[in-house]
Amino acid sequence: MVNEAKQKAEEVFQQTQSSLTGGRSSDVKIPDMSLPETPFPIGSRHPVSIVMEEIIDVFSRMGFEVAEDREIEDDWHNFTAMNTPEDHPARDMQDTYYVASPPGWLLRTHTSSVQARVMTTRKPPIRIIAPGRVYRNETVSARSHCQFHQVEVLYIDEAVSFADMKQTLHQFAQAMYGKDVVTRLRPSYFPFTEPSAEMDVYYGLADEHAYRITKGTGWLEIMGCGMVDPAVLETCGIDSTKYSGFACGMGIERQAMIKYRINDIRLLFENDVRFLKQFASVV
């Protein structure tokens, strides 16, 4: 009985094996189905995402938290709260995309609107970074685009000074560009900070690329900064006699172009796989 069962099992096995091979001859090679399949191409992070995460990481280690909000914003949070009323000449500095409805709404021109919303809903101390996409009606060229990304920094507390801002930004520059980086602050103007400054890093003049990107000076502007104007604090409901603070903002595309020596900002928005594949090893 055991032999009969064995013979029956072998017969079933042979029939099953024949049906699986489709009756093919023994010289036909059957692939090993236990081998792994052909792998899919490995993707890569976008250079803007890589740099944005690096900047967020630097400020997060300093104690700043990420704050995000809407891209379609009302006029008050985008302009008025930032000391830019309707008749203010600083509005001419930013060509704005307004939406048809509701009236007075727009595509935010900077992430300062996030700062305004935080200041009107929280009490100091406030220590935030606001990353995100912004829009301006500008002619698209190798150096400018109608959409780009910003990271803005805001710190409000008692007795915050210009020296606190300078040291914070210098530490950021060291984390991004190396311990030996040389920085400088130049007087500037922004409606929501007073005094205001531009921060530069020394890029050098080692090659033609450095000459072109620094316009022959060796210095490269990386951000605008300054002490928060007391009028902004009061507009947002914060006592300017008790609290002070600093704010700064930088374009992520500019940082990415510096880091990876990209000479045309349009490359960052064209979704060309050949361009993006270059950053697969940077993840």
Task: Describe, in plain words, how this protein is organized in 3D.
This protein is α+β, with helices and mostly antiparallel strands and 283 residues long. The chain has one domain: Bira Bifunctional Protein, Domain 2 (BirA Bifunctional Protein, domain 2), CATH 3.30.930.10. The protein is built from 9 helices and 9 strands. The protein has helices at residues 2-21, 47-61, 75-78, 112-121, 162-177, 208-213, 230-235, 252-260, 273-276; strands at 65-66, 72-74, 105-107, 126-135, 147-157, 183-190, 193-202, 219-228, 244-251. Strands 1-4-5-9-8-7-6 form a 7-stranded mixed beta sheet, with helices on both faces. A two-stranded antiparallel ribbon has the order 2-3. α2 (47-61) packs across α8 (252-260). The longest helix is centred in the first third of the chain and has 20 residues, at 2-21. The radius of gyration is 29 Å and the shape is elongated. The termini are far apart.
Question: What structural keywords apply?
Answer:
283 residues; alpha+beta; BirA Bifunctional Protein, domain 2; 9 helices; 23% strand
Spatial shape: elongated
**CATH fold annotation:** BirA Bifunctional Protein, domain 2
SS summary, helix count:
9
Structural domain count: 1
What percentage of the residues does DSSP assign to strands (E)?
Answer: 15-25%
Assigned CATH class:
Alpha Beta
Count every beta strand, where a strand is a DSSP E run of 2 or more residues.
9
Distance between the termini: 65 Å
Mean pLDDT: 88
Which blocks of ≥5 consecutive residues have pLDDT under 50? Answer: none
CATH superfamily: Bira Bifunctional Protein, Domain 2
The radius of gyration computed from the alpha-carbon positions, rounded to a whole number of angstroms, is 29 Å
**Which sheet architecture does the biggest sheet show?**
7 strands, mixed
Strand order of the largest sheet: 1-4-5-9-8-7-6
| Fraction of residues in helix | 25-40%
At CATH level 2, the architecture is 2-Layer Sandwich
- Along the chain, the helix and strand elements come as HHEEHEHEEHEEHEHEHH
